[in-house]
Structure formats: structure tokens, C-alpha cells
Amino acid sequence: xxxxxxxxxxxxxxxxxxxxLLRLWPYVRPIRGRLATSAVVGVVASSTGxxxxxxxxxLVDGPVTDQDPSGVxxxxxxxxxxxxxEAGLFxxxxxxxxxxxxxxxxxxxxxxxxRLQRLPVAFHDKWASGQLLSRATTDLQILRMFLxxxxxxxxxxxxxxxxxxxxxLAQSPLxxxxxxxxxxxxxxxxxxxxxxxxxxxxxAQDQAGDxxxxxxxxxxGVRIIKAFGRHRTQSQAFHRQxxxxxxxxxxxxxxxxxxxxxIMTLPELAIGVALVVGVLQVxxxxxxxxxxxxxxxxxxxxxxxxxxxGFLLAMSNEAATAADRYFEPMTTDGAESSAGAEAGTHPAAxxxxxxxxxxxxxxxxxAPAGSAALLCGVDLHIRSGETMALVGATGCGKTTLTALVxxxxxxxxxxxxxxxxxxxxxxxxxxxxxxxxxxxxxxxxSATVRENVAMGAGPDGAGEAEVLRALEIAQCGFVxxxxxGLDTQVGEQGLxxxxxxxxxxxxxxxxxxxxxFLILDDPxxxxxxHTEALVEAALRDVLRETTAxxxxxxxxxxxxxxxxxxxxxxxxxxxxxxxxxLRDNAEYRRxxxxxxxxxxxxxxxxxx
Length: 608
Ligand SMILES: Nc1ncnc2c1ncn2[C@@H]1O[C@H](COP(=O)(O)OP(=O)(O)OP(=O)(O)O)[C@@H](O)[C@H]1O
Hints:
Residues 355-594 form the ABC transporter domain. The protein is of the alpha/beta class. It contains 24 helices and twelve strands. Helix 7 (129-148) packs antiparallel against helix 10 (183-220) and helix 18 crosses helix 19 (499-511). The longest helix has 53 residues, at 231-283. The protein starts with 8 loop residues before the first helix and ends with a helix.
């Protein structure tokens, strides 16, 4: 099932940026002291800058008018000192927050990673990996930038404006009124901009996530794309999505440039008008030249706090969107709980009853409405130490049923017990210590052979002897011929292995921990007949010590099992030994003779 972009509706819903940003509080709380100090230092720094016009006023009205060179030198030195102090304080502000903010980003990323690990397989089936990747990278960077700049500077600039206007008011109330003229239209404009920019920012961030998904799929599926000559189609899809993203980014840039143009023009106009009015006042002797110089220099110094509002608002908006996107997977329902006994504290249930399924029902959450449940009352008992083969037509739900045992999906009805203990009540960690799985599609990680195999052992890990034993059972002799033996890197960024080799390593991983319960989903499908026979011979010893459910498509795999369960119409319709079923069950005979047919949903619902 292809992963898709999650519900795009949030982009269309109006939301409060402030409420979205307030959700960051738990992460910001530990560094609130640092942030507050950095804000205070920022205010002191910009207020220091506002003292410069006052020194200029003193310079013009005093030493310059009196033609006193030593006074001019003193004034110049003072201006230089204030400038250096301002720069130093801004540097200190930056130093105060840089390290703590990197820590906030790291802890948010850590929480998201842990959350993604705990979210059920159903969640990952639905969410595109690129979307999750962009939330864990770009969105978190945007949030760090917000905490470093807009959060502090919206406060620092607002305070600077307040202090600045008090200074202006003290110089000339009339000229201050002239300067305040554009304030009302600027506020209205900023509010309108905020709404429109928020929608564009959300769209751009979602589109970036979709693009990341497409790139990831193109890289992972490069063999298929080449083999089927689909590079042109894939590249067209890439260009289409990249064009859409570019369009949205341009739209954002247009919104920002419109706002910026007005934010730059209106204050400049107001300063121009203030200059004309001020010059008239100086010529009428209603204002000293020094006061006019100080007023205009202060007004010019306040241009930056006003002009920066545009991009501070834009960055805050993007941060609000990033916060929404970050918290979507963080607050999605269904994370695997650690309900039940804690890992390690749940006593291993006494051996005896084996694996029991009672009336197990399941339907995928995204199955079409009104369609029949995939599993509609599975009853099956695998005795302790027994190996049960699970046979059924393609698509009848065998893999799904095996995934319910380690709770990769939660059954929608019925119960599964392991030696009498209900899996629904067990801590997930404990359950997965008891049950080992090897899937038909073997996934290896970017790690050494040894690490990939040892991953299947419990929290105590596996020693060298255990790893070698598992490799031998799975007939993985080929690993000793690899360039670095067991230390050879395999997986996505390592040496490429054949399908059969990967499958055998996955099998070694499943058996390394001597699991009490073993689930094998057609584990030998990629092996040649000779290797399959060797693996089966070695597996028999392992299977004797464990309770196993083995999905089987071929008579050779079925031979591994003590008994066979036939699955059909979402239920187990027959259980018996291979010869018994061959003798008594026509469907089983058909399946084993290779005349298998794909199960259509209609057939399933008919069977009910
Ligand atoms: N994540 C999913 N969401 C919705 N439907 C799914 C999902 N995974 C599988 N299905 C559907 O459930 C049905 C059973 O799939 P499953 O893989 O369990 O069958 P199977 O018997 O193991 O098939 P095979 O023998 O080919 O491996 C199929 O129709 C499949 O399309």
C-alpha cells in the first residue's frame, strides 16, 4: 500500500499561530532563563544604539556650534564606544542562546524519533517517509531559527520601538505624531499578511515533504525505474512537484515583497515629511538644529525594528506551521503503549499451552468502507514445541495474521495467547523478546553482518558463539568469504547481497535469540532447492526447541511442520498433517499442486 501525504486539511483550516507556537513551551521551559536573559541583553544592546542620537544632539548643539575640537573628539569617541558596546552585547546575546537552542532541537528530534518507533505499522503504512523526514529535519531547523531570532527580536524590537518613541516624544511631540501616521495601516496590513502567508507556508512545507518522498522512492527504486525505462515519467513527476513547490515559494516571496515594500516605503515617507516639518520648525526657531538631528537619527535607527517586522512575522508563521507539522505525528493516536508488565519484569509465562488464537478478527483501518473483515474469527492452537505451517491462497491474510502475534497490528477482535498469557496485556518489549519474526521481504540495516544478526537477540545481546550458530542454521557460510567476514558492512550503504543471501541473514537474525515463539513468513522463498534443503535440515533442530508458525507456499516448506492449518475466507478451515490434508481437502490439494489463485475480496466475503 503506497504511503501518502497525511490529511492535507490542516493547510486549509485557519489556525492561530500563537496557539501553535505555544505548544513549544515544554521544550522551551528548561531554557527560559537563557532566553529571557538574551532578550534583556538584546534590549540593552538596541537601547545602547538609541543613545547615539542623543550624543549627536549634544555634539551638534554643543562642541560643533561652539567650534570646540576637543568636545568633538570626545563626542566621536563616545559614539564609537556605544557602537562597540552595542555590537558586543548582540554577540553576547547570540552566544547565550546558540548552545541551548541546539539542545532544544536535538531533544525535539529525539522525541520525534522515539515516537516514530512507537507508532504502529498502520501509521507508517499511511504516512509518506519523506513527510516524516522533512518534519525531523527542515521543520525542526525552522523552529530553532524561530527561537533564536523572531521570538527574541519581536520582543526586543517592540521594546526598542517603545523606548525610541519615548525619546522621540521627548524631542518633539509634533514630529512624533507625523512619524506615527503610518502605524495604523501597517498593523492592518500585517494582520492580513499573516493569514495569507500562513496558508502558503503550510502548502510549501507539505510540498517539500512530498518532493522528499519522491526523491527517496526514486533512489530506492532506481533498479525498477531503469529496468522499466520509467526514468522519464519519474523525472516528469519530479519536475511537476518541484515546479509546484517553486510556485508556492514564489507566491510566498511575492507576499513578503509586497509587505516589505509597504513597510519600507511608509516609514521613509513619514521620515521625509518629518524632515520637512522639522526644517520649517528649526527655521522658525521652534526647534534646535541638534534636536532635529537627534530626532531624525533616532527615527532612522528605528527603521530597522519596523522593517524587520516583515520577515520576523514570516519566520514566525513558518515556525507555527512547522510546529503544527511536528506535533501531528507526535499526537497521532495509537502509539504502542507500554501497557502491561514492564519489559523484563513480566515473568516468562510457563511453558505448556503454546500459541493460541481465539476468534481473532482484523480489518485494516484504511480498508474500503463496507468491505468484509480480512480475518473474521481465526481459531488456531499451536501446541508448545509444535511447528504449524500456515497455507492459503495469495492475499488471504497469512502475513497479516502472523503480524498480529508480535502486535505489529492490533487485532480488532478476539485474543492471542502465548503459553496462556494474553498478548494484548503484555508489555510490547517483553512480547517481542518472546516472539522472533523473519519476513519474506528481508530488511538489512546499514551495519555489519554481526550487528544485523545480533539485532535479533534480546536486550542482553548475542555472543560470538550464538551469532555463529545462527549463521550456520541459516546456511550463511557465504559471510566468511565477504571482504571483512562478519565485520562486512551490508544493508543500504553496504555490500549488495543477493535476495537469497539477505533472506538467510534475516533467518539467522530470527533464530539467534533462541526465541520461545518463532514466526517465519515464507522464509525460504528466495533459495534454490539445494540450499533450501540444507537450511531446512538445520532448521529442524531449532524448530524442535520452539513453538513456530511458518507461512508456507511450497510443499518443501510444509514438510518442516508437524501440522498444517489451511486459511480461507478469513478463517482456519482445516488443520491436520500434510498427508491428511492432501487426502481430505480439495482446496489444500489445489494449493499444493501449484494451481493457486488470487483471492478476490468478493470470494472472501462469499466465504463468510
Ligand atoms: N497495510 C495494509 N492496508 C490495507 N490493506 C492491506 C495492507 N496490507 C495488506 N493489505 C491487504 O490485505 C490482504 C491480505 O494481505 P496479506 O499480505 O496478509 O496476504 P497473504 O496471504 O500473506 O498474501 P501472500 O501469500 O501473497 O503473501 C491483501 O488483500 C492486501 O491487499
